[in-house]
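New here. Your pick:
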Amino acid sequence: MSAEANAPTASEYIVHHLTHWQNKPQTEIVDFTVFNIDSLLLSILLGVVTCFFLWKAARRATSGVPGRFQAAVEILVEMVESEAKGIVHNAKSRKLVAPLALTIFVWIFALNAMDLLPLDLLPEIWKLIYGAAGHDVSHAYLRSVPTADLSVTMGMSVSVLLICLVYNVKNKGVGGWAHELVSAPFGTSKNPVFAVILGVVNLAMQLIEFVAKTVSHGMRLFGNMYAGELVFMLIALLGGAWAFSFEPAGLMLLLLHIVAGWAWAVFHILIITLQAFVFMMLTLVYIGQAHDSH
């Protein structure tokens, strides 16, 4: 039997790589009992790794001439601190918000950077482990980019929303925030009828704003990383098409695979950094808004 006969089709290859390793099959669009184990494990692992490197930089910090690693971390910390100071004007809040923003940037950058690994590296390693345990390797699913998982990015954005709600109550009080919900952005009126109408409209606008900010916050990161993952899959198919055909005329596909893969990887470094920065900045902006009174 030829290698081409054993090769998966393009659609089968993409579907396999877009399928999560889950604790049980998902039968409904929204099912909170289903967990994407691959996203959880990689997110936790990369979170521990990034915390370790930042801790190591802090342990090795000296007052003298810093090494390259310490200098890079100091530049990053100063950049985040400067951005936090320009957006969140409460010095007490910045003691928590600035480290939070730094954690978000470094963690999301590490999650995004998984897209730069060879597409089949981790899935093939998982297939070997899964097959060694006596299971069918065709069901060995593993996705390498946690931020290409909507549940991860939306979980992050919802966490930011909860932090914003806490700061709203902390800074303005329950009564002050409740008054803001029904009086902004259109103000209020001395006329009781108009006051009720404006209160309902203001509350609706505030709720829509919270939902829109949260959804767009998570969807922006997910959409960019999901699209990048798909592009890498299409580039991988170019090399696969040549590998399974073994036709000399197909060498152009191999060349295109190498050139396109290199070019997209270089460009993707900018994307993964920019997306981590944008998510961090929006987090600071939303928390800063929770400190402002209307």
In short: The chain has a mean pLDDT of 90.
